[in-house]
Specification:
Layout lengths: L6 H18 L6 H5 L2 E8 L10 E3 L1 H13 L1 E13 L5 E12 L5 E13 L2 E8 L2 H8 L6
Parallel strand pairs: 1-6
Antiparallel strand pairs: 1-2, 3-4, 4-5, 5-6
Length: 147
């Protein structure tokens, strides 16, 4: 049996994904440039996202608009400790990483550990599924109710 796991697979996904994060952390990002990282029919999924956060976004324009709003909801975004893992499908790569930001609405620091599954078509993201702890999002981004 021949394996198709290559360093090239992970390197290609790493390039595209790091560009995504570079634009994501830039509050002045151009939506069109960001959208161009994705195929027209791209899908973003966040299976553990609690309300009011989206669990699924369809289409590059919807993804770009949503990410633009997330980007503006916090400052000082930082992502570290990346580990990219290729699979037997050269278009699918997993990424593990950590991130944090200062949330505008609450003044709290958001910290998260992420695991993502990136599917590429050519050099664009066609599907991205990201897993993270929903309680950490709620704690940092949702203001405490007034008493």
């Amino acid at each position: 049996m021949k394996t198709t796991i290559t360093d090239h697979s992970a390197a290609r996904a790493e390039r595209v994904f790091l560009m995504h994060l570079s634009m994501f952390t830039n509050p002045d990002m151009a939506l069109e440039d960001y959208a161009n990282l994705y195929t027209d029919d791209a899908v973003h999924e966040y299976p553990y996202a609690p309300a009011p956060f989206s669990t699924k976004l369809e289409g590059r324009d919807a993804i770009a608009a949503y990410i633009s709003n997330v980007t503006k909801s916090a400052t000082e975004w930082s992502f570290t400790d990346f580990k990219f893992t290729a699979t037997s499908d050269s278009d699918i790569v997993f990424v593990e990483f950590e991130g944090n930001a200062l949330v505008n609405a609450t003044g709290k620091t958001y910290r998260q550990i992420y695991i993502g599954r990136i599917t590429l078509r050519e050099n664009q993201i066609s599907h991205y599924r990201e897993f993270w702890n929903p309680s950490w999002i709620l704690d940092a981004f949702v203001p405490a109710p007034s008493v």
